[in-house]
Amino acid sequence: MIPFLQLTPGEDGPAVRSAIDRVTERGWFVLGPELEAFETEFARATAAPRAVGVGTGTDAIAIALRCLGIGPGDEVITAPLSAAYSALAIMMVGARPVFADIDGKRLTMDPAAAAAAVTARTAAILPVHLYGQSADMPAIMEIATRHNLAVVEDCCQAHLATCGGRSVGSFGAAAAYSFYPTKNLGALGDGGALTLKDDDLAARAKRLRNGGQTDRYHHAEFGVNSRLDEMQAAILRARLEYLPAWTDRRRALARTYRSALAGVSCLWVPPELDPGHVYHLFPVLSERRDAVRAALQAAGIESLIHYPVPIPRQPALAAEQPQQCEVADRVCGQVFSLPLYPSMPGDAVERVTRSLQMA
Q: What is the mean pLDDT of the chain?
């Protein structure tokens, strides 16, 4: 069996166990030195001035929006192809998600569609760097500047990705990251962070994640309970050192896939439109998706669909009267993801590609 991914610690195992032991022996489990150190190290790794650890990537988006003053009555333009949490985070702050269809090649927000979606109520744009490939940030930033809109980047699938040689997350006022276990940098549980350029915004984000407290038992504003705990921060610190090498490995596996799948008639492989792609996932499209996936399963190869339902068609979004997106609808009916993870052996990739060539 070739699994879709491998979540148990591998080469990082000793470092992860040492991190767990360090926290256990210290006896400090929330808002302590591990979190402070991780925030500093993660900000450096992502070329951000400052980082704030929170409970989930969803909370990172919501807190970033609140820090920027976005809430009821506002609209936030975002992408219809993603995990639904990006849109749910917009709804968490009382704003309305507005969907701009995707570019059919990049599979991220189409800047032309985003420009067309701007209204008098638009307050921000939330582009999603999907599957590890950046959105077209220069074009999106031009729209934001023209209309005086805030930009919050959803980098939850794009740790260490770049756009035109510039780190994702460095374009907008804030960016959100997830450390869900399946991410390129994953915790052994939930976790997230937001990065910000402004000191005052970072200070507010730290208050908001901790119930709005200025100090213990003094709540200056309505906040939430969303803190990246010491155990997960320590684990992420240990794994952060491996992330550049793991990213290189993902890129090498993706090159092997691309070369071997170039002539497979039943598949379309989305192009790599920026060398800063970090391949959180390796998606392919097929009009015969069910049959191709069945052939892979028969060969002992696991695949998954990211994502089977575009966000505007989710029942949870019905009350927002979302605009339907034709390109996202088509992609969701054809896309599926092949196994790709840093410890995946090269002969496993060859076996996957041989099975696809025969499908």
A: 97
